[in-house]
């Protein structure tokens, strides 16, 4: 027990316990996904190595038959270190790469346990050769480091063995890792630029569609205004003009063709050419009326002149077709539901009839048994009476 009571041993154990509590607090407080992977590995290694070493040291203290104070402190540290080690194992299983972490964990355990043995338990007194002692730990660490993979040390591609070749391999591996990090960073940046360009293209497409929609709405408004001007420029049957204007003649011809369906199939000599208006003597309003009449004649003239205002449009026809389709589907669903209800009623009625028949047969069987003393059995599966 005097080894544990030494000031240097107490200071070392206190350092291990403080590092253990510090690391577990950081593991519990920090959002591990936002922390870089190297720092995550260091935190978990610190928690695992310190808790494991404290747990082993406390177990050895409890085996030395300590007094009540040492025993109470040992039990408390045993429980706390076990909880910290379990929590670190849980975090390790989900937050770090196992191929990298497992060799590093073994190396950290070996180093911390060796230092604890030298500082607390005075293993340095039992060491006969420090060179052999250090070489054993170097071999263990080197084996764990080789398990990390992607590391060329004394392989066949290393033409020069020794310190210089090994150092060159170390520098080459460091450069490869740095290049891989830069490549990943550049790929992420390129991905962000592509996403930004894609978003910009989508915004441009939306803006173009909105502009097209606004342009279509403006054109529709212009057409409506032209139709209103044309309808207001039509001659009234109550007012007789002895010398009508050429634009009024064109509008009257279009109105007559719209009223007569048979005349729409034959070409009109009055509006054969758009030069029926005297361009030199006509004003701007006359020109607008004349060209509006020609455009309405080309489109049919029906909607513009109001000859057949009650005729349904394409949207109205589509809406009516959808309404009929929905009615038809509703009727079909009603028929299916009714037929399903009828089938269920028939099934229930047949089942009840079978139950009544079985009850009737059982009653008859009992009456026969009471009357003649005949032993009969009723087979429920086949519905037969066996005597």
UniProtKB/TrEMBL annotation:
It comes from Trieres chinensis (Marine centric diatom). It comes from the Eukaryota. Residues 322-369 have a biased composition (Basic residues). The chain crosses the membrane at residues 12-30, 68-90, 102-121, 127-148. Residues 249-264 have a biased composition (Low complexity). The keyword Membrane applies. This is Uncharacterized protein. Keywords: Membrane, Transmembrane, Transmembrane helix. The keyword Transmembrane applies. Residues 249-275, 303-371 are annotated as: Disordered.
């Amino acid at each position: 027990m005097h080894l544990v009571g030494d000031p240097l041993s107490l200071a070392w154990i206190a350092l291990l316990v403080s590092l253990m509590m510090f690391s577990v607090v950081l593991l519990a407080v920090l959002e591990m996904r936002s922390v870089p992977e190297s720092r995550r590995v260091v935190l978990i290694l610190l928690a695992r190595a310190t808790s494991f070493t404290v747990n082993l040291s406390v177990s050895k203290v409890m085996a030395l038959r300590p007094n009540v104070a040492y025993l109470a402190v040992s039990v408390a540290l045993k429980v706390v270190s076990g909880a910290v080690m379990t929590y670190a194992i849980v975090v390790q299983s989900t937050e770090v790469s196992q191929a990298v972490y497992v060799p590093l964990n073994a190396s950290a355990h070996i180093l911390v346990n060796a230092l604890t043995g030298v500082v607390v338990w005075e293993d340095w007194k039992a060491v006969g050769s420090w060179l052999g002692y250090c070489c054993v730990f170097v071999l263990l660490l080197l084996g764990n480091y080789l398990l990390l993979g992607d590391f060329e040390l004394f392989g066949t591609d290393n033409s020069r063995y020794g310190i210089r070749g090994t150092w060159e391999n170390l520098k080459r591996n460091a450069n490869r890792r740095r290049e891989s990090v830069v490549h990943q960073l550049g790929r992420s940046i390129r991905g962000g630029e592509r996403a930004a360009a894609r978003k910009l293209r989508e915004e441009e497409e939306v803006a173009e569609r909105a502009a097209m929609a606004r342009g279509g709405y403006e054109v529709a408004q212009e057409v409506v205004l032209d139709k209103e001007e044309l309808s207001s420029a039509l001659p009234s049957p109550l007012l007789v003009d002895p010398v009508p204007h050429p634009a009024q003649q064109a509008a009257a011809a279009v109105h007559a063709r719209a009223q007569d369906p048979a005349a729409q199939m034959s070409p009109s000599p009055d509006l054969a050419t758009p030069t029926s208006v005297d361009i030199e003597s006509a004003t701007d309003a006359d020109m607008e009326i004349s060209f509006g009449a020609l455009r309405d004649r080309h489109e049919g003239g029906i909607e513009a002149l109001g000859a057949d205002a009650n005729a349904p449009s394409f949207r109205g026809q589509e809406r009516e077709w959808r309404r009929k389709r929905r009615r038809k589907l509703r009727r079909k669903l009603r028929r299916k539901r009714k037929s399903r209800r009828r089938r269920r009623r028939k099934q229930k009625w047949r089942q009840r009839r079978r139950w009544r028949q079985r009850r009737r047969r059982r009653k008859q069987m009992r009456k026969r048994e009471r009357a003649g003393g005949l032993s009969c059995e009723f087979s429920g599966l086949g519905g037969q009476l066996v005597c």
